[in-house]
Amino acid sequence: MTPDWIPNIHPFIVHFPIALLVVAVLVDVIRVFVKNQAWLQNMVLTLYAAGTVGLIASFLSGRHAVDTVSVTGDAIPVVTSHEDWALYTMIYFIAFTLLRIWTWWKNLEMKQPVFIGLILLAFAGTGMLWYTGELGAKLVYKHGVAVGEIGRLEQQIELLQQDLARFREEAAPELHDNGSWTWRIGPGADRALAEYFTVEGPEPDRAELTQVDGRHQLLLEAGEEGSFLLFGDAIRNVDGRIELNTEEFNGVFALIHHYQDPENYQYLRLVDSDVSQGQVRDGSDNVLGSGQIDTSGWFTLRVTASGGHFYGYRNGQTIVHTHAGEMDPGRTGFLIRGGGTVRIMLVEFKSVE
């Protein structure tokens, strides 16, 4: 069991293979100057083997770790790059360690050109290891990923922003220069929907504003054909979320991003309690992953996309984590299709770099 202030075991594991592999390279360099030391050769092989096994454990624990923390904003591209480089580094050291075992078995390391070449390959692997570690450190020390206090502060900021929007009573979505936008439902939101949003497909059957416990809610109904409601400019790397209530809804609701046209877009789709993540390309629906969530009451549905890495969350908890080819930058919004009413209090899409 890990302490409650550490959400996963990745921080406990990751430092050991780094240390083992760095020491292995140092011992390799020492062997250049110390001849005929068989025990040093055995030590190097042991260190490389143990370090590579540790890398595999670190990679697997890291894949699990990313599903236990909430990654937001500019940290999203960093975490995807960290995952990619961790994979490359693990594969590199698996191949390199097997090569070292083979050259030892064939007594090829006794030849000076082979030995020097192996050391150069070890230095290249160390460079990959260093860069992967730098990305991991940036996640923690620059972006505060898995740091509990940062998450609490972000929640407080969000509450203050909601209060500010309530006092300002802004109906229109707020658009930023990089294509990001935020729409906090307030007085006039029903009119703002028709005025500011692009609708692909039929207009929603109903868009009505109501207020419960001091907070405004937008009630939406759509027909069986479905409506894409889009806003903002094209975005490449996306962090989108919506606060909604689907207890009175029976149909399909989806967060939409990388939207080109009704035949090409990506989605995080909700049907009853089933969540699926996928891409529609040339009209063909490719479901990448799925899960189930509790849809009682109000909840936040969130999607992130950076490169070929896609995540889906409910209230900050990872539901799906999928991979596929990156689509061209596109517009963002949501899709509603079916009977009943969806209630919305907030829609936000950020462009993250």
Q: What's this, in brief?
A:
The chain contains seven helices and 16 strands. The protein has 353 residues and is of the alpha+beta class.
Overview of the structural elements:
This protein is an alpha+beta fold and 353 residues long. The chain folds into 2 domains: 10-146; 172-351, Exo-inulinase, domain 1 (Jelly Rolls, Sandwich), CATH 2.60.120. The chain has helices spanning 10-13, 15-33, 38-65, 75-105, 112-141, 148-168, 189-196, and strands at 174-175, 181-184, 198-200, 206-212, 215-221, 227-235, 238-245, 249-261, 264-271, 274-281, 284-292, 298-306, 309-314, 317-323, 330-340, 342-351. Strand 10 (274-281) and strand 11 form a beta hairpin.
| CATH level-two architecture of the largest domain | Sandwich
CATH topology (fold) name of the largest domain: Jelly Rolls
SS-based class: alpha+beta
Mind telling me the CATH superfamily name of the largest domain?
Answer: Exo-inulinase, domain 1
Helix tally? 7
Largest sheet: 9 strands, antiparallel
Q: How many domain modules?
A: 2
- Unreliable spans are none
Mean pLDDT comes to 84
The helix/strand series, from N terminus to C terminus, equals HHHHHHEEHEEEEEEEEEEEEEE
* Radius of gyration, whole Å: 25 Å
Q: Can you tell me the overall shape?
A: elongated
Please count the beta strands (DSSP E, at least 2 residues each): 16
Distance between the termini: 35 Å
Strand content: 25-35%
CATH class of the largest domain: Mainly Beta
In which range does the helix fraction lie?
A: 25-40%
